[in-house]
Design brief:
Chain A: It catalyses: L-glutamyl-tRNA(Gln) + L-glutamine + ATP + H2O = L-glutaminyl-tRNA(Gln) + L-glutamate + ADP + phosphate + H(+); L-aspartyl-tRNA(Asn) + L-glutamine + ATP + H2O = L-asparaginyl-tRNA(Asn) + L-glutamate + ADP + phosphate + 2 H(+). Chain A: Heterotrimer of A, B and C subunits. By secondary structure, chain A is mainly alpha-helical. Helix content of chain A is 39%, strand content 9%. A two-stranded antiparallel sheet of chain A has the order 2-3. Chain B has 3 domains: 3-288, no CATH class; 297-411, no CATH class; 419-482, Arc Repressor Mutant, subunit A, CATH 1.10.10.410. Chain B starts with a strand and ends with a helix. The chains are: A mainly alpha, B alpha+beta.
Chain lengths: 95, 484
């Protein structure tokens, strides 16, 4: 698949990654090679094969509905850049 | 041109688990900010989600209640987007293999007719935190207590054709989840939230029009108002030669309008993929049978039984069965007094009125079902009349007495049915009111019927409300007409 720099920029934006111009062209090559490999995989005939949601042949264990966590707000907020009245502060979000 | 409205609803129901869907943090409402957000909810490195069995059971119970296919295998996916109240950078949801497949719900319209609304599917997901946009020195405050609270998103087919049908559907879902006890259904606290998809098309046209999605529609009333506004907006737009744009709009209840949420040119791209931290959820038949055995009698079944076995009207049966608490209260009143119609009248009338005035739920009624049932029995066996019954009700409501009989004795409300006693009071009233008696005798015969009201009032007053009103009426008429 032919990947263009605009694709890389869009993917980087969606993942909130800062990508410099130099890096962007490098990523075009790297990602194109990955996609080529995916193309190769897709040439396999998977007719009649159930898609796999998880590589492990196991099922989800469930936990009992019990409150097991205690309040550790002070510990968690020690690594936050800004807090006030128990809230984490972030740059203003406007919809 | 005649237009037809097409509506589909996405209802998010907060499940009433004690702990979160993927962590052991508490889900209790109203705690101090961030005191119930643990490492898993915060998305700290190295944490792993473990699914809450109760959330699964609740989703399945809902599915069974709406006659849905329950997925033998369901899978969690990551829905990726950046927003500060979603610390992991993705919401764990179910995109491709939801736990609850197609089902249906019966709704009852105002005229008593019913309609079946199909459910496309319902899936489990986690709630996000809350952003507080009050000014924190130009920053936004984030409370992650709600992050990770289990949600069941119930997606309907576009089967509703009016705002009333949409509201009835929302009420039906509310009834079902509260009957099942899988959610408190409290819309004011956000336990049930609703997005509405609305489009219009010329009547008779098969293809759907372009739809708008309205967010933030968080009460039964708002659903109707938001749809009414949106339908009018879309019809005007089209009739003026424009066309509806597929977009997300926000309902503003203060201004009673919907507004475009001006999305950036770049559309969201959620890049769903199966969550590698969670394995497929596999449910076997024995488990489903076990949950099916635990289902309570559901609103639709109760409604039908109230109508067919107890003889309630379609309207009464619908109103009373809508809430499990009210239905059970009614059933207890009925078993005490034995008269379903009277029980329904008192529960919907006097009791609901008093509860509304004091903003109480029926579960917190100061009058118990047994007390109310006994009170009704005393009306049915003619111990007290209707007026005294209201007084007894008020006394019981205020806690003045344990039982109706106690209040009736204490207040001397026992109905006077002794003809001699009533006649004595009537004679006294007639003797005390010569002017009114003269007026009565002088007036046209057809006007006398109305004038008798004055005398009835006086006699009832003299008996302190305890005289049997039918007897008073009959005897008064005889005595007054004898004076003509």
């Amino acid at each position: 698949m032919a990947l263009e720099e605009s694709h890389v920029r869009r993917a980087a934006h969606l993942a909130r990654l800062a990508v410099s111009d130099d890096q962007a062209s490098g990523f075009v090559d790297d990602l194109s090679r990955i996609l080529d490999m995916v193309d190769q995989l897709q040439s396999l005939d998977t007719e009649g094969v159930t898609p796999l949601a998880h590589p492990l042949d196991a099922t989800q264990r469930l936990r009992a509905d019990e409150v097991t966590e205690t309040n550790q707000r002070d510990t968690f907020q020690r690594c936050a850049p800004a807090v006030e009245n128990g809230l984490y502060l972030v740059p203003r979000v406007v919809e | 041109m005649q237009w037809e409205t097409v509506i589909g609803l996405e209802v998010h129901v907060q499940l009433a688990t004690r702990s979160k869907i993927f962590s052991g943090a508490s889900t209790a409402f109203g705690a101090e900010p961030n005191t119930q957000a643990c490492a898993v909810d915060l998305g700290l490195p190295g944490v792993l989600p473990v699914l809450n069995e109760q959330a699964v059971a609740m989703a399945v119970q809902f599915g069974l209640a709406v006659h849905a296919d329950i997925a033998e295998v369901s899978v969690f996916d990551r829905k990726n987007y950046f927003y500060p109240d979603l610390p992991k950078g993705y919401q764990t949801s179910q995109m491709y293999h939801p736990i609850v497949g197609p089902g249906d719900v019966e709704i009852t319209l105002e005229d008593g007719s019913t309609k079946r609304i199909r459910i496309h599917h319902a899936h489990l997901e986690e709630d996000a935190g809350k952003s507080l946009h009050e000014d924190f020195h130009g920053m936004t405050g984030i409370d992650l207590n709600r992050a990770g609270t289990p949600l069941l998103e119930i997606v309907s087919e576009p089967d509703m054709r009016s705002a009333k049908e949409a509201a009835a559907y929302l009420k039906a879902i509310h009834s079902i989840v509260t009957y099942l006890g899988i959610s408190d259904g409290n819309m004011a606290e956000g336990s049930m939230r609703c997005d509405v998809n609305v489009s219009v098309r010329p009547k008779g046209q098969e293809a759907f029009g372009t739809r708008a999605e309205i967010k933030n529609v968080n009460s039964f009333r708002f659903v109707e108002r938001a749809i009414a506004f949106e339908v009018e907006r879309q019809i005007e737009l089209i009739e003026d030669g424009g066309s509806v744009v597929q977009e997300t709009r926000l309902f503003d209840p203060d201004r009673d309008e919907t507004r475009s949420m001006r999305t950036k040119e770049e559309a969201n791209d959620y890049r769903y993929f199966p969550c590698p931290d969670l394995l497929p959820v596999v449910l076997d038949q024995a488990y489903l049978d076990h949950l099916r055995g635990q289902l309570p009698e559901l609103p639709a079944d109760k409604r039908e039984r109230f109508q067919n076995e107890l003889g309630l009207s379609a309207y009464d049966a619908n109103v009373i069965s809508a809430s499990r608490d009210m239905a059970e209260f009614f059933e207890a009143v009925h078993s005490e007094c034995g008269d379903a119609k009277q029980a329904a009248n008192w529960v919907q009338g006097e009791l609901s009125g008093a509860l509304n005035r004091e903003n109480l739920s029926i579960a917190n009624s100061p009058i118990s079902a047994r007390q109310l049932g006994e009170l009704i029995s005393r009306v049915l066996d003619d111990t007290i009349n209707g007026k005294a019954a209201k007084e007894v009700f008020q006394a019981l409501w205020n806690g003045q007495g344990e039982s109706a009989d106690e209040v009736i004795d204490a207040k001397g409300l026992k109905q006077v049915t002794d003809t001699g006693a009533i006649e004595a009071m009537i004679d006294q009233v007639i003797a005390d009111s010569p002017a009114q008696v003269a007026q009565y005798c002088d007036s046209e015969p057809e006007k006398r019927g109305k004038m008798i009201g004055y005398f009835v009032g006086q006699v009832m007053k003299a008996s302190r409300g305890t005289a049997n009103p039918q007897q008073v009426n009959g005897l008064l008429k005889e005595k007054l007409d004898a004076l003509l």
